[in-house]
Amino acid sequence: MIHSLFLINHSGDIFLEKHWKSVISRSVCDYFFEAKEKAVEPENVPPVLQTPHHYLISIYRGKLFFLSVIQTEVPPLFVIEFLHRVADTIQVNRSPPDSGVKCGSNVGDTLPTGQLSNVPWRRAGVKYTNNEAYFDVIEEIDAILDKSGTTVFAEIQGVIEACVRLTGMPDLTLSFMNPRLLDDVSFHPCVRFKRWEAERVLSFIPPDGNFTLMNYHVSSQNLVAIPVYVKQSISFFETGPCGRLDITIGPKQTMGKTVENMMVTIHMPKAVLSANLTATQGNYTYDIATKVLVWDIGKLNPQKLPNLRGSLSIQAGAPKPEENPSLNIDLKIQQMAISGLKVSRLDMYGEKYKPFKGVKYLTKAGKFQVRT
Fold it and tell me: 259 near 329, Cβ under 8 Å?
């Protein structure tokens, strides 16, 4: 539920952070600092802030801000209660200097079996019959295209998921062909950050099993390729209870890869009663209650572009809709990273065996919208 927790003092300095999944960059706190500057008093900072990709939920206790980072919608009061519990725990364990209070600990003097002090995320004595290291490069493209197909906004959120099952204590190095296109990177604690800063390679002793190795962001709009183009026309007539719809979709910058799971979702105006359409590929449904039109295309065939066209029935006497609805696009492209990121090699040191290794790529649509 809670992805990360930041403790911030009254001056706005982050002095403690805890990450339960992958490491989220401190830059996410900039949204909180902006809200803090606008507030007259610390108590007036909004407890819930929404950012493009996270929710920030915070409390102010004892001249400290407890800021949590959430990636999915959760009940805010539940998180706030948790933060108050954390604050209570910190206050209970804080005692003034030279107060005569003796602090004890239930932490033993020896480490548990299978734990190494210098590599806390990996246990000792790991053994496998089949040694393997696989990586999934998954990119999600957020984009807004205007009616003419021009890109208004585009960015890529990327993640590298790892599945590593290797015997012993391997030391891995993952190299990229074009690492400098990545912005705002965050890493698993196992990654040697200084090596990344100097050479733009990932050097790490991996945890055992599945973990998120790296998150990254590509924000330069000229580096974000749009994988499909959409020719569309949705119109409602001034007179007569009807409208027209015509949509054609084709592949654009896919590097020869097939676009799969293609789907178009349109939230129609409330006045639209029904849709009488013909699809050359896939099938469509129109929900009268929710006014949502869904066109499930499947795989895009470059030789025969899918088309959906027909008429829309409007409620009698209803005024012409003021705005045309937007198209929301869903898609997947296997074995392609839309940013162009490619892993060039994976090297292993510290062990003598040769592991099985591989990299898969996946591009999918995030918030991909076409205006009409």
Answer: no
